Amino acid sequence: MISVNDFKTGLTIEVEHDIFTVLDFQHVKPGKGAAFVRSKLKNLRNGNTVERTFRAGENVGRAHIDNREMQYLYASGDEYTFMDTETFDQFSLSREQLKWELNFLLENMNIKILSYQGEILGINLPKSVDLKVVETEPGVKGNTAQGALKGAKVETGLVVQVPLFINEGDVLTVDTEDGRYISRA
């Protein structure tokens, strides 16, 4: 058990049989009444974000999440197959479990699988990935005042807003958190 007074960003907790990670929290001490902790939590089972208020000093269960090194092998229909790099065990995750992550997943990519008591919750991507541009319009010199962007489709199907000098065939470094362009690789 852990006290809500000890919340930290990134902490994983168990509340009402669901697993959450703490995205944000704030200790509030009103002039009248008891202190409380206002928190923003992400459900690791379904990806929903909820706001929850706890009484100061309330205890919640601590969830120990396992991070195992895995390699993405291939897709077959709506199933995506991964292999444990140590034991070579293979298992599949559905498209529904990997909604956002599919924008960055390439075959033979090493990632971390998040699991809790044997239940696979999802995958943890690196902070950024390098993706090849497969389709973009050519940038026309002189048609901007400053900092213009255009759409570029990368090999996973994600469309990234990039500067005008990016061409087809370029390799981009893309942030996996929000899908934004960082630089050319």
Task: Summarize the model shown.
The protein has no helices and 16 strands. It is mainly β.
H/E series, N to C?
Answer: EEEEEEEEEEEEEEEE
Helix content: under 10%
List segments where confidence is low: pLDDT < 50 over at least 5 consecutive residues. none
What's the average pLDDT? 88
Question: Numbering strands along the chain, what is their spatial order in the largest sheet?
Answer: 1-6-2-3-4-5
What Rg is obtained from the alpha carbons, in whole angstroms? 21 Å
> Pairing-aware structural class of the strands and helices?
mainly beta
The overall strand count is 16
What is the terminal-to-terminal distance? Answer: 44 Å
Q: Beta-strand percentage?
A: over 45%
Rough outline: flat
Largest sheet: 6 strands, antiparallel
What is the overall number of helices? 0
Keywords: Cytoplasm, Elongation factor, Protein biosynthesis
GO molecular function: translation elongation factor activity
Domain Elongation factor P C-terminal: 129-184
Domain Translation elongation factor P/YeiP central: 67-121
How would you characterize the overall build of this protein?
Belongs to the elongation factor P family. This is Elongation factor P. Its main location: cytoplasm. It comes from Paenibacillus aceris. It is found in: Cytoplasm. The structure is a single chain. The chain is mainly beta and 185 residues long. It is 0% helix and 54% strand. The protein contains no helices and 16 strands. The chain has strands at 2-3, 12-15, 18-28, 36-43, 49-55, 59-62, 66-76, 79-84, 90-94, 110-116, 119-124, 128-136, 149-154, 159-163, 171-175, 181-184. It has a six-stranded antiparallel sheet, with no helix packed on it. Strand 3 (18-28) and strand 4 (36-43) form a beta hairpin. The termini are far apart.
